[in-house]
């Protein structure tokens, strides 16, 4: 009967190393043949999986720990295991207590002092808050702002959490970035564009608004408004490069209208190139809402 890694190594979901294969009775010739025909593929470090599991983040995480038993999954890999919306770069990112050279799809970082890990899906992983802060500090700026908006919308981390974490990261990579993000979270601006929108409102002397506000209706949160004028029940949303309609966006806007709110969508070009038009549009919407 053909050797099935899933049955031979159920605890690692069929992920294995050459020594594990040898111990299970797989000869070197069979191992070379399976790899040559790509029925099995090298995943990361010294780990091997069936071809159909090559894109699995969990298999990659298990492979990293099989290669380096002291590894703690971190950054993008930990974020994906936690279900955070980051891009999968096909690499297992790990923390190690000593310096290691990168290996196949395996990227180590050395931590300077003790790092606590939790077991997530059976592998040691940085906890949710640590993972979020690590990603905010080290991911590309646009992706970090996007992640901040996502975690703030779900109230997974707040400005005070970020400020406290910054105090414990003196001298570490990304502290300046974290300060910028913490300031944005404190003011309710969860992107560079939202910061610019706030500046436009302040410069125009428009008051009576709140930022990053949950809107509740019939006992549940309908949305978090980028900017809310509560007296006029006017919601202003910053939509980035352009307004992308989706079924989720349309349903959210429909529910907000049902709850008595008007929704005004603004793009990056409108806020940065034509701020006077934004001011005029918001003032017109406020006057209409307050007069009705």
Tags for this model:
single chain; 292 residues; alpha+beta; Endonuclease, Chain A; four-stranded mixed beta sheet
Give an overview of the whole structure.
- This is DUF559 domain-containing protein.
- Residues 228-286 form the DUF559 domain.
- The chain is elongated and about 80 Å long.
- The chain has a four-stranded mixed β-sheet. Strands 3-4-5 form a three-stranded mixed β-sheet.
- By secondary structure, it is of the alpha+beta class.
- The N and C termini lie far apart (78 Å).
- Helix 5 (75-82) crosses helix 6 (128-138), helix 6 packs antiparallel against helix 7 and helix 6 (128-138) crosses helix 9.
- The protein folds into three domains: 5-125, no CATH class; 128-187, no CATH class; 192-291, Endonuclease, Chain A (3-Layer(aba) Sandwich).
- The mean pLDDT is 89.
- Helix content is 45%, strand content 18%.
- It contains 13 helices and eleven strands.
- Poorly predicted regions are none
Order of helices and strands: HHHEEHEHEEEEHHHHHEEEHEHH
Mean pLDDT over the full residue set = 89
Number of domains: 3
Outline type = elongated
Oligomer: single chain
Binned, the helix content reads 40-55%
Strand content: 15-25%
**What is the strand arrangement across the widest sheet?**
8-9-10-11
Largest sheet properties: 4 strands, mixed
Q: Structural class, please?
A: alpha+beta
The tally of helices reads 13
- The radius of gyration over CA amounts to 24 Å
Distance between the termini: 78 Å
**Count of DSSP E strands?**
11
């Amino acid at each position: 009967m053909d050797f099935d890694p899933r049955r031979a190594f159920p605890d690692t979901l069929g992920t294995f190393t050459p020594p594990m294969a040898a111990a299970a009775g797989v000869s070197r010739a069979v191992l070379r043949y399976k790899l040559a025909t790509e029925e099995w593929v090298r995943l990361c470090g010294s780990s091997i999986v069936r071809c159909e599991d090559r894109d699995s983040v969990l298999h990659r995480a298990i492979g990293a720990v099989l290669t380096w038993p002291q590894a703690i999954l971190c950054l993008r890999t930990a974020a994906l295991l936690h279900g955070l919306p980051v891009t999968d770069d096909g690499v297992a990112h790990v923390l190690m207590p000593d310096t290691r050279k990168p290996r196949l799809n395996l990227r180590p970082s050395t931590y300077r002092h003790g790092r606590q890990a939790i077991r997530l899906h059976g592998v040691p992983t940085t906890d949710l808050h640590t993972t979020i802060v690590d990603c905010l500090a080290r991911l590309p700026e646009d992706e970090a702002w996007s992640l901040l908006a996502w975690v703030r919308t779900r109230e997974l981390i707040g400005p005070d959490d970020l400020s406290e974490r910054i105090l414990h990261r003196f001298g570490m990579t990304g502290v300046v970035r974290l300060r910028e993000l913490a300031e944005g979270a404190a003011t309710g601006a969860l992107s560079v564009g939202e910061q610019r929108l706030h500046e436009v409102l302040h410069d125009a002397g428009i008051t009576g608004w709140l930022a990053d506000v949950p809107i509740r209706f019939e006992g549940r949160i309908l949305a978090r408004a980028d900017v809310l004028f509560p007296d006029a029940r006017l919601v202003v949303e910053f939509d980035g490069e352009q307004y992308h309609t989706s079924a989720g966006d349309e349903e959210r806007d429909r529910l907000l209208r049902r709850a008595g709110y008007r929704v005004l969508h603004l793009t990056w070009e409108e806020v940065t190139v034509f701020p006077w038009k934004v001011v005029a549009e918001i003032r017109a919407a406020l006057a209409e809402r307050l007069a009705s």
